[in-house]
Design goal:
This protein is of the alpha+beta class. It contains nine helices and 19 strands. The protein has helices at 48-63, 73-86, 88-101, 151-156, 234-241, 245-254, 324-330, 342-355, 362-370; strands spanning 22-29, 39-46, 123-128, 139-147, 170-176, 183-187, 197-200, 204-210, 229-230, 257-258, 264-270, 274-280, 301-307, 311-313, 375-380, 385-398, 403-412, 434-436, 440-443.
Length: 449
């Protein structure tokens, strides 16, 4: 017998679910007038259908998530058929979502997206192979940056009280009993197609970041006319199904991927010291003559491989720019001297990691990423609005141990910043040092042998 669901719920209230699949659903950091971020920790263990139903329950009770319709039932059928044939783990979870919402599996609703804090329609990271770390572990350090604004302010230019985008992140652990690998992910906006970052029980990790130079599609985050794997869902698909970088590459090449409003590129990495940056056709133009550097417009995927070496990713396509130093010399761009420009962040991180003496300690990694924190107020290209940009999450992953240490933006502090950042806010205002929470520590349970 299914447990009746509360249609209306108070967001942020701690509760203990009666669903045995939900081992934990706990708010670890409360959002209030002094703290910008709410953090939820979710642990689920059961069949994939049960996991999907549990996610649906949490979506209804804690996030007031509505399901979005497809433009026509044929698109809903196409998506279900595709998932059943190509991604059965996710198909089973969609069945569970249908149970949670008490709708038919063949309804015209998108059961593959549990989107919140946005309507259907800048980050930096470094991968450190074990050969360069003081503890001999494979590590990743990353900042996740975004604007302190909600969907209505950014995209509708109206002020409302809805929560800011990325202000309610979650840590989600899933332990499926009938297919797919266990994984731990950091997500926001969507409980199903989660993901900024994650790693699985096979020692494979994936991160995605916004690609400033790939045109946004006019698609939606849910429903619409799309079928296949959403770009937002690629991280989830790789972690569920792949145990190596090569398997991840094949999954990306062989699946039908559709592009929504947030174009992404991906870094995929493993415990043994290998990584790759996966990128789709770019719209990056030559700064001198305006011609496109990428002549192909076929949505093909490009891989830039690294073996036993540090790899850096910010928000531009690395496959198009083999020599950033030369690119910076010829750029005709008013932002070229701004510290937070994607190329300057990339060069800062490359410079700091290449000149580092000795092995990197975890503290060294955090300090390296602190050099490119978002501490500025900027106009948002194409939207006609100005918003404060901040580093909202900062984490350190130990892929060898399967542990994640992460802290969250709480509020602005003093103006005592890195001198190299001072005075570089585009609106002329003083920059402020971010105040973060303590580090929260999470671990993926090791599989029994």
């Amino acid at each position: 017998m299914r447990i009746p669901l509360l249609v209306l719920a108070y967001i942020g209230v701690k509760r203990t679910s009666k669903n045995p699949v939900i081992l934990k659903n706990e708010v670890l950091l409360d959002k209030d007038t002094n703290n910008y971020t709410e953090l939820r920790h979710i642990v689920l263990k059961g069949t994939n259908e049960q996991i999907g139903e549990a996610l649906g329950e949490i979506a209804i009770e804690d996030y007031n998530v509505k399901l979005y319709p497809y433009a026509d039932p044929i698109y809903a059928k196409a998506r279900l058929d595709y998932m059943q044939k190509n991604y059965p783990v996710f198909y089973e979870r969609m069945k569970g979502v249908a149970e949670a919402y008490n709708v038919a599996l063949n309804s015209n609703l998108d059961l593959g997206a549990l989107v919140y804090d946005v309507e259907y329609p800048g980050c930096s990271m470094v991968y450190f192979p074990s050969s360069v770390t003081s503890n001999g572990h494979t590590m990743v350090c990353r900042n996740i940056d975004f604007f302190k604004a909600n969907f209505d302010t950014l995209y509708k230019k109206i002020k409302t009280n809805r929560p800011d985008i990325y202000s309610r992140p979650f840590i989600l652990e899933t332990y499926p009993l009938d297919g797919g690998y266990s994984s731990l992910v950091l997500g926001d906006m969507d409980l199903m197609q989660v993901g900024f970052h994650g790693f699985n029980s096979q020692g494979l990790g994936v991160d995605n970041q916004y690609d400033l130079y790939r045109p946004s599609a006019q698609g939606s985050l849910a429903g619409g006319r799309n079928s296949g794997i959403a770009m937002m869902g690629l991280l989830r698909m790789i972690l569920d199904n792949c145990k190596s970088i090569d398997e991840a590459k094949l999954a990306m090449i062989n699946n039908k991927i559709y592009f929504g409003p947030f174009p992404k590129h991906f870094m995929i990495y493993d415990r043994s010291g290998n990584s790759t940056i996966a990128e789709f056709t770019s719209d990056l133009a030559n700064p001198v003559n305006g011609t496109h550097l990428d002549k192909q417009k076929d949505n093909s995927i490009h891989f830039t491989d690294y073996s036993n070496s540090i790899s850096v990713m910010t928000n531009h396509p690395v496959y198009l720019i083999p020599n950033i130093t030369e690119m910076l010399k010829i750029r005709n761009d008013p932002l070229k001297d701004w510290y937070y420009d994607t190329f300057n962040r990339y060069m800062t991180l490359k410079d700091l990691t290449s000149k580092h003496i000795g092995k990197f300690t975890p503290q060294n990694m955090i300090e390296t990423l602190s050099s490119v924190y978002a501490e500025c107020t900027v106009p948002i290209p194409g939207l006609g609005v100005t918003a404060e940009s901040r580093t909202l999450y900062n984490f350190l992953l130990d892929l060898t141990n399967g542990t994640l240490s992460i802290r969250f933006y709480l509020r602005d502090g003093s103006t005592d910043l890195d001198p190299s950042h001072k005075g570089l806010s585009l609106d002329g205002n003083e920059l402020r040092t971010p105040i973060f929470s303590k580090f929260f520590n999470f671990a993926l349970e090791k599989e029994s042998t």
